[in-house]
Amino acid sequence: MPLYVYSITAATHPCRLDGLTGVGAEPAPVRAITAGPLRAVVSDIDEEIRPKRRDLAAHQEVQDRLMADGTVLPLQFGYTAPDDEAVTQVLRERAEGYLAALDKVQGCAEYQVKASQDEDALLLEVLQGSDRARQLNDRIRAGDADPRLPLELGEIVATDVRERQEDLAAGLIEALLSLAEDHRVRAPADGDILNISLLVHGDDKAAFLRAEAGLAERSEDVRFRFTGPLPPYSFV
């Protein structure tokens, strides 16, 4: 029977799954498949699983339950397998890599840091810092219909945004990355100018949160959004 796969853990993980039901219109109990030193946490499914709100919540509930009791390799939403035998085979074939990954994230959680800046404030700073940008903006506002003007202004703004992203990343390296075991930088989306995930050990959690707070306090026109602790999705 097809399976939905949530996570991989060590075989020594307690996997307290009593009462948990999985994804799907008719959720099946969540259970574990053990193969040597590893376990896969799964539930039976009889349909294609789509990212509906209820299923996303069920997926995350399993991760939270497991993470509360030990180290876990959380899989992104949507992983499936044909049957128990296929899962067992993968656990055996990839045991070395999974064990190394478990060792890497042991005692750690993921924290996400995103940053954005008001577009009007950003444009004002660009105009204040670039004579050429200010000239282009003045011509556009005066009614100059030359289609090259907004293109050139857009390029100047985009370059400035990239530079700001690099500056923010440099600041994070100093303020946060020294407290992280690892990090992943992603392309910003939805108007953000920074998107980074950090792997932080529990022993460094308090210091990391203090550094986060200090970073936000020092930023006048940049709005930071901090999320965590989360299962270490980005580091599996």
Summarize the structure.
The protein is an alpha+beta fold and 236 residues long. It contains 7 helices and 9 strands, in the order E-E-E-H-E-E-H-H-E-H-H-H-E-E-H-E.
What is the CA–CA distance across the termini?
Answer: 26 Å
- Nearest-integer average pLDDT: 88
Count helical runs. 7
Q: Structural class, please?
A: alpha+beta
How many strands? Answer: 9
Bin the helical content: 40-55%
Number of domains: 2
Proportion in β-strands: 15-25%
Family: Belongs to the gas vesicle GvpF/GvpL family.
Protein name: GvpL/GvpF family gas vesicle protein
Pfam families: GvpL_GvpF (PF06386)
Keywords: Gas vesicle
Notes on the protein architecture:
The protein is of the alpha+beta class and 236 residues long. The protein has two domains: 3-106; 109-235, no CATH class. Helix content is 42%, strand content 24%. The chain has seven helices and nine strands; from the N terminus they run βββαββααβαααββαβ. It has helices at 53-67, 84-93, 95-105, 119-129, 131-141, 148-175, 205-218, and strands spanning 3-10, 31-35, 38-44, 73-74, 80-81, 108-117, 182-185, 192-201, 222-230. The strands form two sheets. Strands 1, 2, 3, 4 and 5 form a five-stranded antiparallel beta sheet that branches. A four-stranded antiparallel beta sheet has the order 7-8-6-9. Helix 4 (119-129) crosses helix 5 (131-141) and helix 5 packs across helix 6. The longest helix has 28 residues, at 148-175.
